[in-house]
Amino acid sequence: LPGHGERATLCSHHSSVDSLPATHHETSESQWKQWSHDKQQSRPVQHHIVTVRHDKAFRMPKSYSQVIAEWPVAVLVLCSVTVLVCTLAGLLVGNLPDFSEPLMGFEPRDTDIGRKLIVWKNVQTHTGYKKTLSLSPYTEKNSYGDIGINRRQRFIRSEQGTRTRRMVEQDYGKDSFFCGPPGKSYSQLVFMSTTAGSLWNLQAIQSMCQIEQDKIRSHVHFGNLCQRTEGNDCCPSWSLGNYIAVLHNKSSCLEITQADVSHTLALLRFCAPDYHKGILIPSCIGSRIGREKHSQCAKVPEKCTRFNGIYQLLHFLVDRDFLSLQTMEYQVPSLKYSLLFLPTKKGESMMKIYLDNLESWDLFDNYTTITGMDLGLKQKLFQHYLLLDTMYPVLAILAIFLSMILYLRSIFITFMVLITVVSSLMISFFLYKVAFRFTYFPFVNLTAVVILSSICANHTFVFFDLWSLSKSQNPSAGLLQWMSQTMHHFGYLMLASSFTTGAAFYASYMSNIIAICCFAIYMGTCVLVNLVFMVTWLPSSVVLYERYIATNCIYKPEDHWNYSGHKRIIFSLHRVLRGLQNTLCETSKLLFEKLLPCGVIKFRYIWICWFAALAIGGAYISCFNPKLKLPNLEMPSVQMFRLSHPFERYDAEYCHQFMFERLEHGEGQRMPITLVWGILPVDNGDHFNPKSNGTLVKDTTFTIQSPDAQNWLLAFCQKVKNQTFYYSDLEQKSTVCFMEEFHTWMDSRQCSQQDHSFNLCCNHFPFPYGSEVFLHCIKMMITEQGRDGAETYDLGLRFDGEGNLVALVLQFQTIYHYSFNYSKAKQFYNKIGHWITEEMKTAPIGLQNGWYTSKLELYNLQHSLSTETMVVIGLSITISFVVLLLTTWNVLLSVFSVTAITGTVLVTVGLLVLLEWQLNAVESLFISAAVGLSTDFTVNYCISYHLCPHSDRLSRVAFSLKQMSCATAMVASALFSAGVIMLPATVLAYRKLGIFIMMIKCISCGFASFFFQSLCCFFGPEKNCGQILWPCTYALKDYSDDSRPNGSFTCGGGEKQTRLRKVQESNTANEQYELQPLARKLSDSFDNSTSTSKLSNRPSVLSEDIQLQDSTCPRIGIHSSLETDRQNLQETLLGHHVDLCQCPALQTSSPYKHGISGAEAEIHRERLCRDCRCQKYGPKAWENSNRPEAEIYKFHRGLCSHSSSFNVLDVSNETSVSDFEQTIKFAESASSCPNVLDVSNSSCAAERGHLNGKRDTLRLDLRETVFDISPPASQQNSSSWKNRLGLGSEEPVVLPNSQPDMPDVWIKRSSAQNSGYSS
Fold first, then answer.
1. How far apart are the C-alpha atoms of 719 and 715, rounded to whole Å?
2. Which residues neighbour 469 within 8 Å (Cβ) at sequence distance 6 or greater?
3. Which of these, 1039, 1016, 998, lies nearest to 961 by C-alpha position?
4. In degrees, to the nearest 5, what angle opens at C-alpha 1143 toward C-alphas 1138 and 1145?
5. In the 8-state DSSP scheme, what is residue 668?
6. Which regions span the lipid bilayer (predicted)?
7. What's phi and psi for 1086, nearest 5 deg?
8. Residue 1238 CB: number of other CB atoms within 10 A?
9. What is the pLDDT of residue 1252?
10. Which of 13, 268, 825, 1093 has its CA 20 to 30 Å from the CA of residue 343?
């Protein structure tokens, strides 16, 4: 019952053509409307005043919804203060995130291989002069003093060596043309023929020189960056043309001739076999004296070693297939790629030249093109593009919030949701940094902004769908009841969805990759913090919007827009947009409330088979063939840009085409083995901070001076040499046999009678030596061996600052080559590891804690990704199942939900495999988050199905689809558009994030809407089937009043028998209302209930809508053919006395009223703005009329809102108590229709305070009756919202009866507030 002087709920329209004065509105706000048969006559006003007294003005809130509805500002202020405090604490405590190295943290840390690699890195870092470990037992000051060599002698030797090198350069003057040999420290450009032909021709060679001149040397900054000659000129580049020019005494590569090119080819063809056999090495080049030191150099012809250009051409500048052992006999060998070394160092100094001249795509001419380059800029350029491409994620987020504005039609609410996202991120950062004490914040954590925006969009759309549904079902209620009904469903949904999603993200914490662990903690925390904000901040914002913003819109009559031209244009545009909006609303209603439920239920067999086949195919592709490719590059060279980028092409393709790269960093290098004793493989650093490597932990039991240790080390040397995997490298001396070398050194020293100190280390002592002799002599050997070199000789021993032997490091080469193939690397690791482990078991006590490592960084990453990814996915799915089971307590729904989530993940990963994604760390991060991103839509449908008031599965499926499908489709489309926006990004991480989000959300939407619902159609729980029941803690849901013509399905089957039994029970009822068959046809709801008035034994129908009468108001929305049918039916039924109202909307007992959609509510409110009148017919018209039932159905459909819902009433002796109030606040209804702008004639205002003339047709519906006792506007406060719902008072209420011979109605309200959707 409306109160006096109440303001409108949505908006307050002020029309100058309103026929009723304001005072009449105020005095008749709480009166029943009387609709007269003759519109010219007016009946006396009857007042039915309901007064509810309250004992006190303030009481403690009885529900959370009441707190939100009555104190929204307090909730918002509390949340704002919390966000402010946490944000300041997070930003001020500790250091701010550092994104200067965005790829840091993508290596496995807490693995057996990872720990050893970290410790070995620490050993290398802490070894050196004045460091923790030293190669020499003495300081530099006295390192040569013990053997009588002073600094003067060292200086003389250094000068002699310098003169010797200068003489060599003078003898071989051609080498002085270049500024030294080329190397990895110089910038490199890769050339390829434009016509895909060979580069070994005069035109291509000169073309490379010309492109270098135009793109590099012509730049203004090149002179400041280039290496200088003694004449202060820029050094020439190490290019194919310059080497040919030097060989033929030409000053420039542009001066060479075809004869020079042919002669050089013949020379290379002659020397190439020796190079590929490993005989032509740098030590063979130079003077004859230097060549005589290596016996193998004698086999190399002198013309191949006279000038180092031959070796450098084959080693640095031409690809490995050019003149190889397989192609050497070709008459015209093909040179596919050629490398050019610029005389500029790699690094940030080349950034300006790259951005100005090399970033463009015109790096070609008619002969050659630059297809790859290595300027040392990859990390720096990645940071540059990372900042530049931030616009794409920002645009994606804006697209999500723009779709939110279009869906909600409220900028204020969208802005509040944006604040929710930012607040959740900042509080999560505070918890991540302060509470969890994580010191490293990886760059990938910023992807949480996009992911959390998508999660918030989904929850916001669902909330407003539920909110609109509550308002349309019970328009006469206040904010408290709307909020109570909405939060009953939304709160349950948020708990299930957020806990499931957060748990899925937290499951990735088990990964050994640092960045993935950090992302898992931060993203999971964001989801849980967002849960708190979505149940506090968002509802409070909606309450504020309804109270203060939606009520400020002012209605202007149509005449207001006809005064000027621009106003008419605005009004016309408004009508066009309103028409487009109505069209979209009708289309959406047809698609999501009619076609989609029908399509899912009718074709459920097809959907299950189709999506099951997709899931099986995705599982086969992901796990068996072809599977996700493991990475083949180490982290410094990991892909950052598109594969077509020159930097990526060099790392992925070209660097393996040149021999110097293959031998040093590629598959041509030998795999070394490093054995360590004295340092334990313990990583005591922060495992979640890649910058924290910890400290060295020394082995206190380590010793090698004991006789057993000396014997074992000597025998171990022979065992290593006897193994098939051992490789003897002549250039790189092995240290694994240092004990054998020491023994040989001792035997070579003859004892002296004059020098007693010399007698301590001579052949007089047998092996093994005593502890003191061993330590003294080993130190002497190290000092003596290192006197000829500038650096101390590395024998493998490590000493501390006091000269004590604390560690031993032995190294040797194996026959295994470095491989990017995971299987080959695994075979090497397992074989070597097994042999070394067995040998360590035979070691003496002081050497049993030894361990080994090798070049295993890539294998460590591959092994972690290959084993952890699927384990993390499986664990996430398992945890999601457990959380869903704990929130729904229904086994079947949890199993179906997890099945749909699993199918989504498998299909997504399968598509990523088909897109040729490599399982790098970034891709692994996305795949680990796949489960968390797949849960939202499925949980939406699961909770909606679970809370459905209907008992049979088909009704529940249709119910959940009607309720959730629109929001689900809108979120999926918004995220699809956001993903498309990020595709043009140069940074690969942004691009792959867009692809992943686009795929995962669309696939998740399909599996949730079709596969999950189809499973529920077949095996979904009915009533309490599959529910875990706890004694005394869980009340069974009552479905006893659920009598529907649609039929009911049991858990185990037997749908047809149950449907027949229901029909039989319905036919044997005591009394049937004559309009029940018609009402069943007209009702869009699956739930129909019956009742009768206790004051009369005749059945009564209560219209939820205020009935409209015929008047001069134009009929909007009624087709002419339907109007003709109405008039014909009036003539046929003339003289009867049954009230046939033009707008019958019979009450359904279901809390979800599908019949009233947003568009229908607009029509309903529009008709409230006109004066109409019911037509009266006799009570037996429906029984005696020959009018077919279909025509009556069509007549009602034409006159009423097209989805009015009927409540069929059974005859009983009990007053029915419905979910909704019978009368509607006229001020709210009339003022809350935005479509009133379309009504040009508003003079037909409905009169207030008139009954409809039939007392016995008035049924009091008291279960959720709204009692409005609002005080005057001046006294309205927050407590008035509670009073309007009758909360806080348990006294009976008396309704005076209008009939003097009938008793008054006494109402005893229950103290418990219905806070949910229950049937």
1. 6
2. 963, 1152, 1153
3. 1016
4. 95
5. T
6. 71-94, 385-405, 411-431, 443-467, 487-506, 513-538, 605-625, 870-889, 895-914, 926-947, 967-988, 995-1015
7. -90, 0
8. 17
9. 42
10. 268
d(CA 991, CA 246): 47
The whole-number pLDDT of residue 1297 equals: 61
Kindly report whether the global pTM for this prediction surpasses the value 0.90.
Answer: no
Rg (CA), the chain: 43
d(CA 896, CA 310): 70
Residue 852 structure tokens: 């080994």
Give the count of alpha carbons within 13 A of 1134, CB side only.
5
* Token reading at 1114: 């134009």
Question: Quick one: how far is CA 116 from the chain centroid?
Answer: 33
**Nearest Cα to 248, choosing from 229, 235, 261, 239?**
261
Q: What is the largest CA-CA distance in the chain?
A: 148
Q: Is the Cβ–Cβ distance between 542 and 1119 less than 8 Å?
A: no
Angle at 228 between CA 224 and CA 232, to 5 degrees: 95
Query: Using CB atoms within 10 A of its CB, is residue 890 exposed (0-12), middle (13-18) or buried (19+)?
Result: buried
Which of helix, strand or coil describes residue 467?
A: helix
Q: How far apart are CA 843 and CA 426, in angstroms?
A: 55
Give CA–CA dist 990/390, Å, rounded.
8
Torsion over CA: 617, 621, 624, 626 (sign): positive
Q: In the structure encoding, which two tokens stand for residue 498, read together?
A: 């957020």
SS3 1185: coil
Looking at residue 952, its amino acid is D
Under the phi-then-psi rule, with left for phi > 0, alpha for psi from -120 to 50, and beta for the rest, what region is 9? alpha
CA distances from 913 to 864, 916, 983 (A): 18, 5, 18
* H or E element, residue 1125: helix 1120-1132
DSSP track, 924-947: HHHHHTHHHHHHHHHHHHHHHHHH
> Is residue 364 classed as helix, strand or coil in its secondary structure?
strand
Determine the Cα–Cα distance for residues 752 and 556; give it in Å rounded to an integer: 120
Say which residue the tokens 């002296």 belong to: 752
Judge contact between 474 and 481, C-beta under 8 A.
yes
Helix (H) or strand (E) holding 1166: helix 1158-1168
> What are the structure tokens assigned to 636, written together?
């410094």
Q: How far apart are CA 875 and CA 885, in angstroms?
A: 15
Which 8-state DSSP code applies to residue 175?
G
CA–CA gap between residue 830 and residue 836 (Å, rounded): 10
Nearest Cα neighbor of 87 from 401, 518, 529, 415 is: 529
DSSP character for 299?
A: G
Cβ-contact 948, 1016 below 8 angstroms: no
Q: Which residues contact 885 (CB under 8 A, 6 or more apart)?
A: 891, 894, 1028
Q: What percent of the chain has pLDDT over 70?
A: 67
- 372 sits in which H/E element: strand 368-374
Q: Can you give the pLDDT at residue 83? A: 95
Strands 1305-1307 vs 1293-1295: parallel, antiparallel or unpaired: antiparallel
List the structure tokens of 849: 């804690």
pLDDT at 113: 93
Q: Do 935 and 501 form a contact (C-beta atoms < 8 A)?
A: yes
pLDDT at 819: 87
Tens-digit pLDDT profile for residues 988-1044: 889 999 999 999 999 999 999 999 999 999 888 887 787 887 654 444 555 544 444
* Ranges of the chain whose pLDDT falls below 70: 1-58, 139-175, 286-295, 552-565, 635-637, 730-732, 752-759, 786-793, 1030-1319
Q: Measured between alpha carbons, how far is residue 31 from residues 49, 513, 995 in Å?
A: 8, 70, 60
Burial label for 1269, CB within 10 Å (0-12, 13-18, 19+), is buried
* DSSP notation for 157-223: HHHHHHHHHHHHHHHSGGGGGSSS---TTEEEEEEEETTSS-S-SHHHHHHHHHHHIIIIITSTTHH
